[in-house]
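Students often ask why inverse folding is considered easier than folding. One informal answer: many sequences map to the same fold, so there is more than one right answer. In these notes we will look at a single instance of the problem. The structure comes first.
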């Protein structure tokens, strides 16, 4: 019979390291949240809600479509850019760095303006090559400008995550005869994606909030519809509703990312 000489250490409490300042801040934000909910409930006008509620919902759907589309475009573009950032060829590396430097170093609003309003300067040429149908639509221009912007950030996240994988992992894969592509697919990328998940989630959240810029180039997303409704009603409460919708999107996405991260890193936690 085996006798345990020492008791297992007690499991730390979730609130053990919470300071008094933290409690005060949490209480403050809870009060602010309750105040916002009360303000929204008090500002509900059934007539205005029935008249303009569908616009807010339509803007919500447009925002989701916009963010999803630009993230897909960005993910596709980021793969060759990340490969360029990791390339040992100077010309390829310089081109990839230049792309990343430009789109990360200039304002997203300026990029959206350059594509949306700049395309109008070349309307005859775009019509001649059959691309005017794309650039005349503000939604398409927003997807393109946001996609090019987020591709630069996604490329840096992916290339940094790949560099973060220990060199010994690659050497061990080569030692057992794995090919370079197989090593990348089965050894490097699974580890890189785990470390890239959190920064990638932050980038998605930033894109959700940055999508409000699209309203300036006439895209009727959440903010675009809210601006239209305010111009008709002068009711500021619709901006509160818009803020709540953005907060809802961010909160849902944060929980999804946390769940994915817990799932992918379950092997690293002690049972």
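Output (designed amino acids):
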């Amino acid at each position: 019979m085996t006798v345990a000489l020492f008791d297992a250490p007690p499991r730390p409490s979730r609130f053990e390291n919470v300071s008094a300042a933290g409690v005060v801040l949490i209480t403050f934000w809870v009060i602010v949240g309750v105040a916002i909910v009360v303000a929204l409930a008090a500002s509900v006008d059934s007539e205005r809600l029935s008249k303009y509620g569908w616009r807010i919902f339509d803007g919500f759907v447009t925002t989701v479509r916009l963010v999803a589309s630009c993230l897909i475009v960005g993910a596709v573009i980021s793969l060759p850019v990340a490969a360029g950032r990791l390339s040992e060829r100077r010309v390829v590396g310089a081109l990839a760095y230049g792309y990343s430097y430009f789109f990360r170093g200039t304002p997203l609003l300026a990029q959206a303006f350059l594509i949306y309003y700049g395309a109008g300067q070349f309307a005859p040429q775009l019509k001649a090559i059959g691309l005017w149908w794309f650039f005349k639509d503000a939604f398409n221009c927003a997807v393109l400008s946001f996609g090019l912007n987020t591709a630069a950030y996604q490329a840096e996240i992916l290339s940094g995550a790949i560099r973060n994988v220990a060199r010994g992992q690659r050497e061990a894969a080569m030692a057992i005869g794995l090919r370079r592509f197989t090593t990348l697919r089965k050894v490097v990328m699974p580890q890189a994606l785990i470390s890239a998940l959190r920064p990638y989630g932050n980038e998605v959240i930033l894109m959700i909030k940055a999508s409000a810029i699209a309203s300036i180039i006439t895209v009727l997303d959440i903010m675009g519809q809210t601006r239209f409704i305010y111009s008709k009603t002068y009711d500021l409460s619709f901006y509160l509703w818009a803020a709540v919708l953005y907060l809802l999107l961010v909160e849902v996405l944060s929980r999804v990312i946390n769940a994915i991260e817990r799932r992918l890193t379950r092997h690293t936690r002690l049972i």
